[in-house]
Amino acid sequence: MAEYGRAANQEAEDAGFDFLGFLWRRSWLALFFGTIGAGAAYYYYLQQPVKFSAKAQVLVIKQQANLPVSAVNGFDPTGNRDPLANDVRLISSESTVGPAVETARLHELPSLAGSSNPVQTILADLSVNRTARDGDLLDISYKGSDPEDCAKIVNAIVASYDARLKEAYQDVGAVTARLLGDAKEQWENTLKKSEDDYKNFVQNSSLLFNGDTATSVHQSRMAEIEAQRSQVIIAQTEVQAELDSIQKALDRGGSREAIMMMVDTFRKKDEADTTKSAPSLMATLFPLLMEEQMALEEVGEDHPRVRLIRKRIEMTQRHMQSLASADGTVVPDANIKKDFLTIYIESLRQQLQASIERLQQLDALFEREAESYKKQADLQITDRRLRDEINRSQQLFNTIVDRLKEVDLATKGGQYKAEVITPATRGYQVEPNFKKTMMIGSVLGAIVGLLLGFLVETADKSFRSPDEISQVLSLPLVGISAQFQAARPAAESPFGPAVITVHRPRSQSAEAFRGVRTHLIAAIRQEESKVILVTSPEPGDGKSTMSTNLAVAMAQSGKSVLLIDADMRRPTVHTLVGQERSPGLSDLLENSDTSVESVTHRLPVEGGLLHVIAAGKCPRDPGERLMSQRFADLLGMLKDQYDWIIIDSPPVLAVTDSATIARMVTGVLLVVRMNGRTRMAAIRAVESLRSLDANVLGVVANGIDPTKHGGYGYEYGVYGASKRASKYYVESGEGR
Fold first, then answer.
1. Do 334 and 453 belong together in one domain?
2. 442 and 549 housed in the same domain
3. 495 within domain boundaries
4. Following CA atoms 587, 591, 594, 596 in sequence, which dihedral angle do they give, to the nearest 10 degrees?
5. pLDDT in tens, 425-462
6. pLDDT for 321-345, tens place per residue?
7. Count of domains for the chain
8. Residue 329 sits in the same domain as residue 349
9. Residue 47 exposed, middle or buried by CB count within 10 Å (0-12, 13-18, 19+)
10. What CATH number does the domain containing 473 carry?
11. What phi, psi does 594 have (nearest 5°)?
């Protein structure tokens, strides 16, 4: 049961501001102030001067040849970037409006007759807008006091704007022609001077000119020398490699026959080399010496073959000696016994030395040519610079000439004008706007009404809805009881008209009490003793009616129920059940000889029997009687005899009787009436009960007015914080 109560309390705490309920309750304020706002807006509408607006739509046509000048006097005919940005500024300027006023005599119009400066008056109410961001259409509108004058002013401005376009375009062509003529003359002189300078340079230069190229003679010589140096270096490398190979073979002690074969291989390679210009001495003599050596080994010293070979060697030596004086070559003496391999090695060394000397000569010659080439390199740079200057000057000159040819085409064939798509007609009223003014006034008035209603809601200390009761008190809403018409009891019934569960058991009001019963059964079904204390914050909240109808509803379900009136100061239960006040509870507490049966009234109800103990006579100390051990023992005894005990006690804030009893019962049911005085009283009552650690099961909202709280009601079944009804109800008037 405790967990059920905490969950219900948490649900009540989570409830927020009832905005829909606020609108329902304070809608009359929004309607009232909205009506006032509409009236004020209408008065404002009547006081405002009437203004009319006329509008013309203009298509700006831009079809012209490209001109070299981008703008003249701030006017851009090329349409760069934003095509109509300058047009909007042009129309809204004095340079367009001023001529329109003078040409069309706008200052004589009735709406401008009293203006000291008609141009500024027109500019103040003139509007120029584009129909699209990248379009060519302009909307030109003017607001004034006379609808006819508005149309005349707009049309005059459009005509002035068109004339301004044509004038500006002609200015552009004239300025373009003048500037291009000056530029042509300037660049013509520049081109002539560049050509003369290059002509003088060619005449005085040592370069070789071949068409559009200029070369240096030293550069070609350097290329030839470099080619010869490469050949000498290659030949030197080959000789050195051959010499190193033979020397390494000798150092290793190889056979002379193998070395001679290697030498013969080198010789044949030299003979096959087509790059050599002429055979050397050893290239001519060495084959004969080799042949002589081979013959000696084969046939001997005196063989005719040997003598023939030697004869050939001798003739070759005499021939080579005749040529040796030219280059200093030493020819071996045939009469001296020769070492052919030594002679070959020596000849290789001489070739290597000759290559080194030749390479030194070529290096020296290359350096001399390089120095001369450096001097001519500056001349080549000068040649390229002069040629580039001539080319640039020629290109600019040709461009200017071409543009000069286009100027006539641009001024004659181009179009830049304003074509009126929709001319301005008689103006229509734009200010004041009746619908707009009335709507703004009504909305502002309604907002003021809602704000005032919110302030009233904030300052209001009464409960505005059952949900608010649950939220403020942090208690579950276990039931609601609407205002109902008292029933007319039957002649044989002892119950009073307010006991609706007896007189109208099928009515919606009776069903509301049964809903509270269902909630209590579900909340404390696990408790062995089921004693419920029904109380309220203050008198008049309807706790006695609630406790009596709740007891009857319990008895109608077949349970054994005892209703005790513990409000001995101002008892009410006995009148509701049609019984005498005494004897009652005070007699039981004062006289121990009084039996419970003697003070208990047994009242038959539909489906069961209700037992009632009235309050009895009011003693001098009712609070002390309820705190006595006698009362505690009485409750303990009665718990064993009844399924449910319903105790009607005095209000919590009026006396301390309820606080005394609250500690002895299973749970407390708080009845709160919906009126303007219950908020603070209910809060104090709950705080008082909680300070005593009483188990407050929930709160019942009593006296609901369906006309004010039409958003609440009840449903059949369990009715509490976890199951809200859809609407409040009005008593149906159904009988039994």
1. no
2. no
3. yes
4. 60
5. 898 888 888 888 899 999 999 999 889 888 876 766 66
6. 665 444 444 444 444 344 566 767 7
7. 3
8. yes
9. exposed
10. 3.40.50.300
11. -75, 130
